[in-house]
Amino acid sequence: MKRPAHPDPYIAGVMLLSRISTQGRWGAEAARKYNEETKHSYVSIRTAPGFLDFANKPYPFKYYVGGEKSQLPDDFWKPSEDALRALSCRGSESAAAKALNTSLLSSLLYFTAGISRVERLGDRRVYFRVAPATGALYSTELYTVVGEVEGVSPGVYHFDPGEFTLHRLRRGDYRGVVARAAQDGGLSVSPVVIVFSAYGWRNAWKYRERSYRHWFWDGGAMLANSVAAVCSMGLNHRLFTGFVDEKLNELIGVDGLDEAAYAVLAVGYKDGLGRFDSADYGLGELEASPAPQRGKPHRYWLVTETHTATALHSEGDVVTWREAVKQLEDIGKDIRRLGIQTPMPGPATQSKTLWETILLRGSTRRFSRKSIDASQLSTILRHSFGPLNADFLPSPNHTLIRPHLIVNNVDGVPSGAYSYDPSTGNLILLKKGHFREAAGYLCLEQPLGRDAAVVFFNMADLDSVLRVLGGRGYRAVQLEGGIRLGRLYLSSYALGLGATGLTFYDDDCVEFFSPSSEGLEMITVVAIGHPDYSAKPGKIFTRALTHPAKAF
Ligand SMILES: Cc1cc2nc3c(=O)[nH]c(=O)nc-3n(C[C@H](O)[C@H](O)[C@H](O)COP(=O)(O)O)c2cc1C
Predict the structure, then answer these.
(1) Distance from the alpha carbon of residue 178 to the mean position of ligand 1, in angstroms
(2) The pLDDT of residue 2
């Protein structure tokens, strides 16, 4: 039977265009164009409109009316494993299938998206979360597809971090639908599957067209937390970015444009098990409806075009895309080793617990220029660029990211520009010198880049990624950039240091590291060092507000 067109003519038009247009392999050309047109430069920053319409600021939470909502417990389990160990697990080493319960699920949701600080800014309140996010705007929504969790009946639920509740959207076991959409049987037998989606307007309100990158950076930072939390539970996991978009969006009841699913985390993943061929896509209505959003959302054309063009439309597309991932084996082996190999000391093996680290984390607002030592840098590198169990990598030891760094002040490592080779753990000295002023300039002229001990510039060979993985690879590489950013934050805080994500002048960064960076594109930046003040740790807020909150 032919599916009816979307009732919103704008959405119907965009969807039709995405199916018939020739934008390269899975939207590769659209992704390339998006990346070019959303670059920051010295000139673009001075000519772009900067007005923020606070009267039209989106509400920071999504919540539902009707149906059944259940309160999650306050006294949930806390991940007390050493943070560094939790950051480095492969996600597939645990042989025993452990049982999940309400306490563990609440813990996972809290340490991924929970509220850890509430600050008053004039007559507004900002609800800061456990993971960093561009502009503290938090556009990611989480949905849990529950199969076997003691205390939670099978169903699809929306997680509300504000009231700390699960709102049921569908009753029954829908893991097979996710497994079928992602063409992976292991999803159908993972006790719970978390779907990450972005409500784009919440971030686009400030960042306009560049906000699409932020979906993945912010979501990646959250995933760094969730993956570490799942590891500390002794459960396996696997991250998916390849799925039939329309089916997953339909499952969680979103339109795929204003809000769209972009990643799936299988918790307690069982590789090679499970079936999905009989899963029924006939989904029916949701049990609850989202409360109407305040204000007037604005759609940004490049975001809409890129996300739509990079969709996978059929199960066949998903299978072909996943096959293509294997061709990435050869990419990355050609890391240019144009400088002087600089072996690093062994990494530290002990740090703070994961939950303490997550609550300690907050973006450093001012760095002192105090040095860190070589073993701290080595630890941060090892644990930030370690294994990642994701469907866009041929194996957990691969990475799409080519780390480059400016060392401003590290005892035992000469100041200068470096690249990092995760396969050897060595730094490669590209040029010696004092580059504090350059580091500040490259990070959009922010003193944080100048005063940090080290600034990481995570780049990628975007041409190769787009050639092999098509435009869908654009989503993957931005997401990996976000995960590496999240891990850089966590490993720094685990050692008692500070960190902050920073935005950047795209092409100037690439030029600075040339020729090592020739042909690469910028993905994310993180600065680390000693904060110039002592920050208070965050607290666990489980009932921070009742919707609709007045001040935000
Ligand atoms: C990808 C990314 C980029 C960021 N860029 C900047 C930046 O350019 N300048 C800045 O001061 N903070 C930046 N931040 C920090 C955010 O402003 C911060 O995460 C947010 O306000 C939430 O506060 P918290 O991290 O202390 O919880 C960035 C964060 C992320 C995740």
Answers:
(1) 32
(2) 45
CA–centroid distance, residue 29 to ligand 1 (Å): 29
In total, how many domains does the chain have? 1
Structure-token match 């339109």, residue found: 255
The CATH number of the domain holding residue 480 is 3.40.109.10
Q: Is the CB of 133 under 6 A from ligand 1?
A: yes
* CB neighbourhood size of 198 (10 A): 27
Q: 412 lies in a domain? A: yes
User: Which residue puts its alpha carbon closest to atom 7 of ligand 1?
Assistant: 502
Tokens of 530: 């000693």
* Residue 1 pLDDT: 39
Judge whether 164 lies within some domain: no
pLDDT for residue 333: 57
For the record, the structure tokens of 275 come out as: 């079936």
- CA dist 250 and 161 (Å) reads 22
CA 168 / ligand 1 centre spacing (Å): 32
120 alpha carbon – ligand 1 mean position (Å):
18
User: Is residue 25 a contact partner of residue 471, using CB atoms and an 8 Å limit?
Assistant: yes
Rounded CA separation 84/451 (Å): 25
Q: Flag whether 519 is in a domain.
A: yes
The reply to whether ipTM tops 0.90 is yes
Q: Is 218 in the pocket of ligand 1 (CB under 6 A)?
A: yes
Ligand 1 lined by 503 (C-beta under 6 Å):
yes
Look at residue 6 in the predicted model and tell me its pLDDT: 61
- Antiparallel, parallel or unpaired: β 410-411 and 372-373: parallel
Q: Distance from the CA of 133 to the center of ligand 1, in angstroms?
A: 6
SS (H, E, C) 9-74: HHHHHHHHHHHHCCCCHHHHHHHHHHHHHCCCCHHHHHHCCCCCCHHHCCCCCCCEECCCEEECCC
Task: Report yes or no: 552 and 468 within 8 Å, Cβ to Cβ.
Answer: no
Given a cut of 70, the residues of the chain with pLDDT beneath it are 1-7, 11-12, 14-22, 95-97, 331-337
**Pocket of ligand 1 contains residue 23 by CB under 6 Å:** no
Residue 202 in domain: no
DSSP per residue, 278-316 = T--------SSEEPPPSS-----HHHHHHHHHT-B-SHH
- Ligand 1 pocket test: which of 111, 127, 363 has the largest number of ligand atoms within 8 Å of its C-beta? 363
Strand, coil or helix: 506? helix
Separation CA 348–CA 383 (nearest Å): 10
What's the CA gap between 296 and 10, in Å, rounded?
Answer: 16
Burial 262-292 (b: 16+ CB within 10 A, else e): bbbbbbbbbbeebebeebeeeeeebbbebee
Closest ligand 1 atom, residue 362 Cα: 26
| d(CA 503, ligand 1 centre) in Å | 9
Task: Give the other-Cβ count within 10 Å of 301's Cβ.
Answer: 9
- CB 116 near ligand 1, within 6 Å: no
Domain span holding position 428? 329-529
